[in-house]
Every structure is written in structure tokens, then in C-alpha cells.
Amino acid sequence: MTIQFHISDFFKKLFPEVDATNNDAVKQKLKEFYNPIEVIIDINGDTIHVEFQDDLKDTKSNDFYRATDLCVKKRYQEAIPIFLKLIQENPTDSEVHRNLAQAYEESGDYETAINHLIDALKWNPKNHWALILMGNIYIRYFNDVNTAMTYFDQVMETDPNNYVALNNIGGTFLQLGKLTLAERFLSKAYKANPKFSHITLGMGLVNFEKGEFRTAFDFAIDTFKNEEHVDGPVYQKALQLALESAKSLVKQQVGKETLVDYIQDIEKLTGKEVRIEEDSTISTAAKVEFAENYGRDFHLVKTNPKYPNTDHLIAHELTHLKLAEEARQQGANMLFIGKDSKLEGFKKSIQGALKKLEKRGIPQTTIDKYSHNLFHGILGQIFNTPIDLFIEDYLFNHFPDLRYVQFISLYQLNVEAHKAVNDPKIIELSPPDILTKSRIFNVVSARHFESLFGVKMEKTYTIKPFELKQVDAFWEEFNEYRNDKKPGEEYELIQHWGEDLELDTYFKLEEEKSYKSTNSPSSKSPEDVLEQIENDPFQHSGLDDEEAEELKKFQEQHSGKDLNMAVAMYMVGALDYFKNMSKEKVKEIAFEIAMLGRTGINPQKKGYKLNLIPNTSFSGYKLLAYYYVSWAIAMPEVLSDLQMPFDKEFELARQISGR
Prior knowledge:
three-stranded antiparallel β-sheet; 31 helices; TPR_rpt; Ycf3/AcsC/BcsC/TPR_MFPF; TPR repeat; TPR-like_helical_dom_sf
């Protein structure tokens, strides 16, 4: 066995009493130290070779492991005598000296620890754990960076690819706030192994402290991808680093110019202005109202102030516009139409869950609202999940400066999605079938988030084997389209996934051009819908066979009764609007409408406004409907005094609404 020294500061630290310029003195000193073991010493220039004639004994006995285990349990005073006995029996084992030194260091006896580390290094100058411990002692307890560097540099010299050792040294300097030295060692560790999560985290933290937030963010993302233990400190620290780096960049307005340019691009693509406004009443983080569907000459993007990452939400909704317009130009755009007529059937399918709510004393009005929200919530997932995958891909690949706000926003949305299907209270009360389908959509979204940013959200889900099988199938199909999607192909995924989950009975997809040419109510704004019903209440255009049959029965039941269908339909909406409102509040609205109507209400006019029903524009017929219903609820005893000829319409509205 041969060990090697260089005539350097490191050698002088181990043998300070030797004149390193005198070869004979060096040989004599080394022979004295290694005595009684026979050694042959050769000095060639500044290199010293020490050749042992016999192999050194290994002292890894049961006593060694027992003492080491005591150290793990922090029982250092019990371990020290065992190590000392082992050294007395065999002083040649470097690791025994190193473990003994660590026991003294943990006990606060740093001088004795240094002495035993010197012995450890004399027997094995490449013992990198002894080198690191020696450096740590000098830098932490004596604030002696120069001496510490003597030992740390020796690690780089003797084992330049030992990324674990280099990372530990870099981490020590990072904890002490010595960023230059930390980066020096971490960079070498990164070069040796760029996929070691501890190293990428360290590099990210160094860059964050330097104010290099983009680089810090990138290293945090690398850490997610390299680290499998999502509950471990490395992963969690990287998540915190990514969020803080991204927030710092968003605070610096990174991505703002990109968003402004994107708005202009969408305006040019669609030929219409894009307007942005906050709306706390919307049920989602954001929504886009297409100009074509609302009879406007501008598109409107609404954002919910509950979600602060507005730039991403706006960009997301703009991409909805982009995909729809590109599909429209190819004649491939589709309209997603939820079948509200299927709501009652949906409620029957979840009767078990609704019965639980009834037994808990939940009011029927609340249960009805819950059913309605659940129905439209799962419809929203059917429509949005496949399209959102393509949208987030597009934003990630085309707008690097928006990635930071995109990351924060998607993380928040995924956390909420996880809670929605994993919260024990929600699980207890939710219909199992709908919960399963919602979970499948959410896990697909989580997997996509991981594919972009490395955050392993899917691992946080408790998912059943059959659910995972469906997730895998959806993910495989998405990836078949992912890199070369043609305009409108996203609708194929909506249809396929709806069919696979047996949800397709609740919606239909129809070609936009042919659907609108039939003047279908679902393709128009709400006011246009009711105006159409009034003008032509018996049309069948745009309905599937089942819906047409239902409409036919309805028409047969109410034909010949001299009804104003527009007013009746508006009354249905009014009854729904007032259903959870106190009579006093309804009375206030009734009086406001009465004041507005002192000069007359023109049924053909549009644009009426009420202070007590903000953000709503009323046509004349709609206002008359609300006028009648508000008085019928709040002051039925004087309703006849209004002399409004809508008694039949009101009775029909009550039948339809069930109120």
C-alpha cells in the first residue's frame, strides 16, 4: 500500500515541526511517525511516496459499529472510550480516528478533534470526510477561512469528481453567507454531477442570494426533476425557492411587455379589441367572453381578484381566443353546449349523495344549488382540461418571460384542484362517481404541470388503479396530438374523454358555422335567446332528437294560451335570482324598478340599468319580468294594482322553475 503527499501547506499542517525543504528531515520524521511499521519513503521533487511493506489492518469490528451507532444516537461520551480503545489496539485505521474526532467535535472539544483528524489524514491524506470535517471546524468555530481552505482545496485536488464532498463544502460556505466560496465548490460539484438534487438546490440558493432570480428559478426546477422524495427537505426547499424566485421576477414586472404584445397579436388575429376587467362574481379564476357569443364588437377577459396571478390568467384566456380563431379560419371551430335539460337526470344519478345532505339538515335550496354547481363544474372540466393542456404548452414554449407567473398560477390552481378531491370532508359528501371523474381530470393536469416544471403534484394524490389507468390513457392520447396539433383537434379530445368517462350525454359539440346558421339559442347572447323565443317560440333548429321531442311536448302543453314566451323565460331567471334573497331586499329592488318605470318601460328598448342589480343590462321585456316577479314575491297583495298582463307568464315560469 502506498500513500502520497505533496510538499504544500497541507503537508505542513500535518507535520508542522518538519523542515519541508530538507528531504532527509522529512524522511526521518515520517519513519518516526509510522514506526514500528516498515515503510519505504521516496521523494521526487515535491511529491512524497510512502510505501508500506505490509497491508494496514482494518479495525471495523463490532465495537467500531457499536460506537458509531452511539454517535448516531448522540451518546458521544459513551462512544469515545470505545474508539480510543480501538486506536490503542490499531492506530493505523484512518476512519477510526475520523469518527473519534467527530465525537469530540460534537461534544465541543474542537482542539482534540483536530488532533485526531490530523492523525486520520496522516494515515490517509485522501480521507475526504476527515478533510471536510477539519475545514468545517476551522471555519465554524475559529472563523479561519484560510486554514479551512487548505483542507477543502485538498478535497478538490485529490478527488475532483467527488460531488458529494464538494457539495458539502459548498453548503458550509452557503450557510455562512460566503457566496463566492460557496459557488466555487458547488460549481465544481455541479460539473461532476449536474443531476444531484442537493447540488442544484445549492446552486439555486446561491443565485437567489446574488439576486439572479432567473438562474435561481431554473436550478429550482432542475431540483424538482432530480429529487424523488416530495416530502423531503430538499424538494420542499426547492419548491419554496422556485416560488420566491418567480414572485421576485413577477414583482419586477418580468413578462408584462410580453403580455401587452400578446394582447395586440390576438386583436390583430381576431380583428376585435380585447378588454380586461376584474369580476369577483365569476366562479373560476378567469373566463373569456367571445365577442361573437355576446353580440359585442370586443372580446372580454374577466379575472377573479381572488387569484393574484393575473398576467397568466389573461394570457391563458387569450390563448382560448387564439385556438378558437385558428379553428374558425379553418372551418373547424366547435361550440361546446351543455345540456341543461339533463340536469334532473344528473341529480337522479347522484341521489345517494343528495340524501346525505338532506339527512344533515341542509336546506333544499342549498342542495339544488350544489347539484347545479356540480353539474356545471364537471362540464367545465370536460371542456377545459384537454384545451388547457394545449394552452399551457403554448404559453410555456412561446413566452419564456411569462413562465414565472405561469408557474405560480398553475401551482396555486393545482393545489386547489388537489384539495377539491382529497379533502376528507369533500370525499365524505361528494358523489363517488363524479369525484372519481374529477380526480382523473385533476391528475392529468397535475401530470402536465410536472412535464413543464418538474413539480411532482401527481405523487400527492391517492389514486385508485382504475383511475390511474384512465389517466394514462388520456395522457397517451394527448401526447399523440401534442407536438403537431391541427386547428380544432382539441375538440376531438373533449369528445373522446367525455365518452370514455360516460359524460357525453351531458353535452354536445357542434360546428360553429352550421350551428349559428340555424339561429340556435345556445349560440346567442341570453337576451337574443329570449327575444328569439318570443318571436318564434316553436322552432326546433339546433336541437338534437331528444331535446326536440321535449320541446314539442312543452309546446303542445302551452300552445294557444296567448303567452309572451320571452317574458315567461325572463321570469324563470328572475325567480332564480330572487330565490335566496330576503323579502326586504326584493322589495327594495321592486321599488327601484317602479321608480324607473314612472316614465314607462319600452319592451323593445335595451340597456336599462338597476343600481341594486349591478353589472347587468336589461331589455324592456326582461325589466318588465323582474318588475312583476319582484312585486309578486315582496308585495303580492298589491300586485294587481300594477295592471301588468303577465299572470299566465308568471304561472308558467313557476311551473318551469318549480317555485
